[in-house]
Amino acid sequence: MARIQDERSLGKVEKECLRLARAGEPVKAEPRRRVIDGDVVRFITETVNTAAGPGGCSVDFQGWTVRGKIDLKGVASLGYLSLQDCVIEDSLDIEFADLRALDMDGTTIGMLEGMRSRIRGSVYMRKGFRALRGVDLSGAWIEGSLTCRGAVFDFDPAPIRETDWDGDWEKHFPFEPNPEAKRGDRPVNNPFCLNLRHTTIGGTLYIGPKHQQEAGRKGQCRLLGSADLSGLRVREFVDHWTTYVQIAGGQDGDQVHPRTRHRLVLDGFEYDRFGSTSPKDAGYRIGTWLALQPDAFGPRSRRGGGVGEDFHPQPYEQLAKVLKAMGHDLDAKEVQFQRRLRQTLHSIEFEAPPRAGSRTFVGALVQPVRRVWHAAGGVRKRIALTYGWMTGFGYKPANLVVSIVALVLANSLLINVAASRGLAAPADESIAASPWWRECANRVSPPDPFVGLISGAHRINDCVKEEFSASPPGVEASVAEADHFELHPRFNSLFFAIESFFPVLDLNQRAHWTISDTGWDGLILNWWLALYSMLGWVGTSLLVAGLFARFNQRGGD
Length: 557
Fold this sequence. Notes:
Layout (H helix, E strand, L loop, with lengths): L11 H11 L4 E2 L6 E3 H15 L6 E4 L2 E3 L2 E2 L8 E5 L2 E7 L4 E2 L1 E3 L4 E6 L4 E2 L3 E2 L5 E2 L3 E2 L4 E2 L3 E2 L4 E2 L15 H4 L19 E4 L4 E7 L15 E2 L2 E3 L4 E6 L25 E2 L4 E5 L7 H8 L24 H12 L3 H21 L11 H15 L1 H15 L5 H24 L3 E3 L2 H4 L2 H9 L5 H20 L8 H11 L5 H9 L11 E3 L4 H34 L4
Parallel strand pairs: 1-3, 2-4, 3-6, 4-7, 5-7, 6-9, 7-10, 8-11, 9-12, 10-13, 10-14, 11-15, 12-16, 13-17, 14-18, 15-19, 16-19, 17-20, 18-21, 19-22, 21-23, 22-24
Antiparallel strand pairs: 25-26
Helix pairs in contact: 1-2, 5-6, 6-8, 9-12, 9-14, 9-15, 11-12
């Protein structure tokens, strides 16, 4: 069909619409004539704005059924374009166009194409707006806000083939393709219902209710397909947990396409704050929001990798930054902790296997070690989980304190059992070799291991008290007992464990008591105590560093 070039091609109704538009009045559909051609809308809009000058003017269509495509691609100096309560059967193309504002409240449209358009005001898609095949505003510059309260973004469930696009189709559509299909005939599994890739919004992006009173159907925005927010820059981001119900696979009255995997692409998404109705707890943001990212944006090894091996920490860092700026410090630390933990686990899971051979002698020697290291990925993941929970990667000092307390208490019980087995002995060799100590070591071993767990140290102290409380001739008992107990303090398994973990402390235990290494159990226990002391140095250093970081963070409060 040829494009309309002048007014002589218009009919009577179209000329009346042009007259109303020139007069600045709303172009309302008549009860008997509600259908208008898309090229007529294009011609009226261009004609009126051209006559108005560089600033353009307002063109308002209300209640029309538009057949065909409204092609305003590349048109400059457009004013306020309003298509309210209309049904656009095809699409509205404003790619590379320059508009003052765009209002599509209550309109049902096939597809809105606005790639790299410039809108000097705001874009309104409210009050029941519905896009049947999605909205593409990738690369657009919106100086105002993008308001989608009460909108529904659907998608075309028909498969898209790679051959339908140019060679650079993956840049525009980074989908998760079906790996079983051939390369040239691979259907896309998650078409975008909202594409805001590399879009700049000077105001607020509303894909949720503005305030709590709009939390129902009036302000609820629903994404029925995947959304690409990668590279999007916006000042305020307003969403709601109901926004992503369909993406997460929930039921909300609309048909869910089970064969389609809906995802959120969030890498490079930058925002300054959340809206008042947006969820701000770390549990929801990590467990639901960030979990909707596609598998293609999972971890990637340093030596390449396929789909599902790319990890982008930017969404976690951005979320933590915003939560911290808004005063949610604990939630921000939880996000940072989860980012570090998942990044560590991903790096282990998708680590590149060692090369088949090496040309150097040193490489040949190291090759078996690398293979064993790579094969032990499951063990390394468990160690990483344990280390992450115990230390909190520096973001949870309380975890480190709880881990240190639990480790010291467990070691105290272990030393108490060792004392009941006669492994605890005085550090003075002359006392340890005396007959009375050998007799005492034989008497402290109880028949029940549970009794030794409770009373191991107590039995040793009874022997020491019996031996050193005996008064020499001519000396009062109280004075002799005080002198001997000062030289040989009572054995305390808890203090012994604390002093072993914190070597800088002196609780008068390690200097007077030791663990015998005569038997196999004593040898193993001494090896464990050496490792335990190393853990103490590491744990103390991490604890001090965490306390200093927290002190500096709070400005010395």
